Amino acid sequence: MTVLLATWAGPLSQDFFRRAFAAGTAAAIAAGLVGAFLVLRNQVFAGDALSHVAFTGGLGALAFGFAARTGVFTATVAVAVLLAVLGGRARLNDVVTGVVFTWLLGLGVLFLSVFTSSRATGNGAGAVRVLFGSIFGIDQATAAQTGWIAAGVVVAMLVISRPLLFASIDPGVAEARGVPVRALNVVFLVAAGVMAAQLVQVVGALLLLGLITTPAATAQRLTARPWRALAASVAIAVATVWAGLWLSYLRPSLPPSSSIVATGFLLWLAVELSTRFRLRARQTVPV
Amino acid sequence: MLTEAWAGSVAAAARLSWDLHRDLRLVLQYPFMRNAFVAGAVAALMCGAIGWFAVLRGETYAAHTLASVAFPGASGAVYLGLAPLVGYFGFAVAGAALIAWLSPLGPGGGERHSATVGAVQAMALALGFWFVSLYQGFLSSLSGFLFGSFLGVTRDDVMVLAITALLALGLLAIVGRPLLFASVDPRVAEAAGVPVRAVSLLYLILLGCAVAEASQFTGVLLVLALLVVPAATASALTARPSVGLVLSVGLALVTVWAGLAAAYFTNRPVGFWVTSVGFAGYGLARGTASVRGRWTRRVVAA
């Protein structure tokens, strides 16, 4: 019993783990909520693109001598607005996202070349850190900041959640009923952009993608009721973060973002396959 | 790396002028540029055709994901001591199969497709990151891998690319008609006896091959520049499949060649130029289409 307690409580006595735990939980709540809407609206690619755009923003700022942070936030918010506008009346589709996203990454490459030729250092490792982050390496201030930004995003999402849900499920009817569908598009993507900007810097693009897709996809498989799916998505995101962090603590060779994403993916796979099995079993029963 | 530095010093000496003939001779003066032009043309041919179907089927995100799969493929192969290309093709085909298998069919299936693709991508990246942390040596070559480099293309590479493209395009020609049918109206196609699932699996594998080709040049993060941007431009201009396909291939070719030439003269990364040329074309096409649409509407109303 005491051994079991020690394995559970052991990691929490470490400072770096407590910070990772706090920031990870905040990230999971925000990403689970935003991700549920992204999945519902079939816009996962937009979320993914926003996280890569952060890379361009950061490098652009560095190339022109600003703080990387400023660039990351400016770029993601600007692109969120651009995507919402280009998507127009219809819901943003993946082709538009893909075209914009590719061009912005191309710009990122230009900035990378400007930055590296002025500093004369190879920057492969820097790019890797941007893409994969390191949740075990954050300091107290960053953890607190992540918490505040996540809280802001969650509040914004909760405020618009009712009309947004309506607009996501049936945009035509929602617009006819006077819901400002276009404005909601912009607000939602900007909230997603702010979240992406912060989380990319703290946990990396990989973990961000894992947190916006798999929990939401799993939740949608578990229940067809929208509000329950939102709650379930957040709960699953938090649970996978906790489980993944703990796994990485036990096996240090496993990077935390990998273990969190893998936990989420395996959970989703299990739910998806078992649902499919059940549906097939029901279909074969003679009517 | 060495070739790149050398190419940089060469390009710095080259100046663009109004004499097109002289410019062309300058660009094609070195074997590595000739190889890059031929290989770029092969990749453009393949990507233009396969990418047109990707836009029609709404598989843009799948294309991006299959490119990301290159990361665990290549890093895993390097970790195990195999050739990166082997790991890459293995993972791309496996990824294509996984997406096809896990993507839900039936009503509401389309809505969950993007989540499935995203989940597969997240898992692939997680695996890749794990391989990298097991074998740190891969990191040094990562920048070229992510953003590409046209300049190290050898004659053998061109041969491999050409053979792959020939096989893939032959296969596409065989399944082209049922694929078009299944893409435009899957339910009617299924009712008419088209094996929709098999066709979409085959298509995703073809897409994986196209992505593998393109990523040799553009790097895994920029494959959409060849695969989706020309096709999206073509789709904005015409709705007719035959015209669209030809236009898409032509635009891909122009994008690659213009991008290569611009990179040669300006000494800035090819990835930047290829994406910028493509994006400019897309912007023009969208603008034209919207002006044309407004004009037609006014005529109809009058």
CATH superfamily of chain B: ABC transporter involved in vitamin B12 uptake, BtuC
The CA-CA distance between the termini of chain A, in Å, is: 52 Å
Sheet with the most strands, sense and barrel status of chain A: none
Q: What is the largest interface, and how many residues per chain?
A: A-B, 56 and 54 residues
Q: CATH superfamily assignment of the domain at 15-204 in chain A?
A: ABC transporter involved in vitamin B12 uptake, BtuC
CA radius of gyration of chain B is 20 Å
**Overall outline of chain B:** globular
Number of strands of chain B: 0
Low-confidence stretches of chain B: 1-13
Q: For the record, what CATH class of chain B applies?
A: Mainly Alpha
The shape of chain A is globular
**Total beta strands of chain A:** 0
Brief summary:
The complex is a heterodimer of chains A (287) and B (302). With 287 residues, chain A is mainly α.
How would you explain this protein's 3D organization?
The complex is a heterodimer of chains A (287) and B (302). Chain A is built from eleven helices and no strands. By secondary structure, chain A is mainly alpha-helical. Chain A has a domain at 15-204: ABC transporter involved in vitamin B12 uptake, BtuC. The termini of chain A are far apart. With 302 residues, chain B is mainly α. Chain B has a single domain (2-301), classed as ABC transporter involved in vitamin B12 uptake, BtuC (Orthogonal Bundle). Chain B contains 15 helices and no strands. Chain B has helices spanning 2-13, 20-27, 31-57, 60-68, 70-80, 84-102, 109-134, 142-147, 155-184, 186-191, 196-218, 224-227, 229-237, 241-266, 270-301. The longest helix of chain B is centred in the last third of the chain and has 32 residues, at 270-301. The termini of chain B are far apart. In chain B, 51% of the residues are buried. The model of chain B is unreliable at 1-13 (pLDDT under 50). The chains are: A mainly alpha (287), B mainly alpha (302). At the A-B interface, α3, α5, α6, α9 and α11 of A face α4, α7, α8, α13 and α15 of B.
